[in-house]
Design brief:
FAD/NAD(P)-binding domain, 8-stranded mixed β-sheet, about 450 residues, about 25% strand, D-Amino Acid Oxidase, Chain A, domain 2, alpha/beta, 5-stranded parallel β-sheet, binds flavin-adenine dinucleotide, single chain, about 35% helix, globular, 3 domains
């Protein structure tokens, strides 16, 4: 059993990490820069808080596995649950020109269950569950300073400074888990200790989110509780999500070259939403009432700190969540990936104890690499061989055929939605059963035109 573990950051990754560590450590301290509110409200350290958050089904399942009971808590505070066979009518998902079958029944809707809540509410419910554990303490209003090294090759503590009094103290720890998000200072702190800076991979997205919390007059005028639209271009993206206690979040997502047209009022937000929202939903929300100002969030792109490729790493320090790999939020994968990192952390501690950080990052690479590949824009033509280009074209063509067939085939729709929600591996798309249905769909469509 570890005597003391310290988690840096009380966001979703930090709370989940503390829950996982509470099983194997006598004492876990979560260090957080913000003074944490005693209510589910937005805070400075989580600027993404007011924006639309939709967690994938795999994320909900993993969160519940790490913190049992949290889904019931969410329902108790008024989260909406989507878990019925007619999921297609409740969720409007549009990827480029392709939609899904929205009328037929799913065979396994429970596997695709979604809980709809705001990001602050999710964090608050999670924090209550995690800090109820007797082993867990939160030290909020504290800034993380530097790592402390008592013997070579091992981090043995961290300095923290109280933001109000300016007092600095050392927290000794056998394990430190950095879950401090995009602002992580671990690469810099390692460099200061003489370790080579871990390589990093990045992509540019220049994304901007505009979001507003709303009350909608007659929310039963339409069945959808989640609308997510991601066309292939940079504009006309966004979504609408039902949240706890009958409130809603509307998000317009764009690229910052479009920033001159920033929405300045609810009327602007609703007008922009008309460009991507199904017409009947756009009409039903026309009389919505604003419950907040418009929140704006700009992000440059994604970063993956490749600790798996670092030549030397000290024992006693592991990195999870956005601090390890932050993605393009438009795909709604961040919380699910943070939960999967922590799940891997729990397995790693069981198998390797506190040592062998390289093995931890190698196990995560298998989880992160396929998701990273779908986030980053394709490499420019000049950087790819003729064979790669041909393979990519063939893959794209097959994907288009599958997506086009999903519009009226519920079996293909269910398989795609399971893959997007990380329940099944993307390889399942190329299952002969699915490909046969895709071929049958296109053959049916070709028949009438031949008979003309
Ligand atoms: C606009 C936007 C929309 C998103 N939408 C979705 C979505 O729909 N679905 C989804 O799954 N994900 C979404 N994400 C991603 C998701 O929010 C994160 O991936 C997820 O919350 C995991 O974050 P984290 O806990 O690793 O880091 P964070 O949430 O950034 O938490 C880091 C914590 O560390 C604290 N901290 C930072 N530095 C220090 C320091 N020096 N000392 C002490 N404490 C410190 C911060 O105050 C904060 O509390 C979105 C992100 C953005 C930006």
């Amino acid at each position: 059993m570890t005597a003391h573990a310290v988690v840096l950051g009380a966001g979703i990754a930090g709370l989940l990490a503390a829950a996982a560590l509470a099983d194997s450590a006598h004492h876990v301290t979560i260090v957080e820069r913000d003074q944490l509110p005693d209510s589910p409200s937005p805070r400075r350290g989580i600027p993404q808080g007011p924006h639309l958050h939709s967690v994938l089904s795999k994320g909900w399942q993993t969160i519940e596995e790490l913190v049992p009971g949290v889904l019931d808590d969410l329902v108790a505070v008024g989260a909406q649950v989507l878990d019925d066979a007619k999921l297609g009518a409740r969720m409007h998902l549009q990827n480029g020109p392709y939609g899904f079958n929205r009328t037929d029944d799913l065979t396994d809707p429970a596997a695709l269950a979604h809980y709809l809540v705001t990001r602050p509410q999710l964090e608050y419910v999670l924090r209550r569950r995690v800090t109820d554990r007797s082993a867990v303490t939160v030290a909020d209003g504290q800034d993380v300073g530097e790592f402390v090294v008592c013997r070579p090759g091992r981090i043995s503590g961290v300095t923290v400074t109280d933001r109000q009094t300016g007092t600095t103290r050392v927290l000794d720890a056998e394990l430190i888990v950095d879950a401090s998000g995009r602002a992580t200072r671990t690469p810099l702190l390692l460099e200061q200790l003489g370790y080579p800076r871990p390589p990093q991979r990045t992509f540019r997205a220049r994304g901007v989110y505009y979001s507003q919390h709303l009350a909608i007059g007659d929310q039963n005028a339409f069945p959808e509780r989640l609308v997510l639209v991601i066309p292939s271009g940079g504009t006309g993206r966004g979504g609408l999500i039902a949240c706890e206690r009958g409130t809603w979040t509307l998000t317009i997502a764009t690229r910052d070259d479009d920033a001159k047209r920033a929405p300045e009022s609810l009327t602007d937000m609703l007008t922009r939403a008309e460009s991507f929202m199904p017409a009947h939903v756009a009409a039903a929300i026309r009389d919505a009432r604003a419950l907040s100002d418009i929140a704006v969030y700009r992000y440059p792109g994604g970063t993956w700190h490749r600790y798996d490729r670092a030549a030397h790493l000290p024992d006693g320090l592991l990195v999870v969540g956005d601090a390890l790999c932050c993605l393009d939020p438009i795909h709604g994968q961040g919380i699910t990936m943070a939960a999967r990192h922590v799940h891997a952390l729990r397995q790693h501690l069981g198998a390797h104890g506190l040592g062998n950080p390289q093995a931890f990052y190698r196990s995560l690479t298998e989880i992160i690499a396929p998701v990273w590949a779908t986030n980053k824009p394709p490499a420019p033509r000049r950087h790819t061989s003729i064979t790669e280009r041909a393979q990519r074209r063939a893959l794209r063509w097959t994907q288009h055929q599958i997506l086009a067939a999903a519009g009226d085939d519920i079996v293909i729709t269910e398989q795609l939605v399971r893959i997007v929600n990380m329940i099944d591996s993307p390889r399942r798309l190329f299952d002969p059963r699915i490909l046969a249905r895709v071929a049958a769909h296109h053959a049916r469509r070709a028949l009438p035109s031949r008979s003309i």
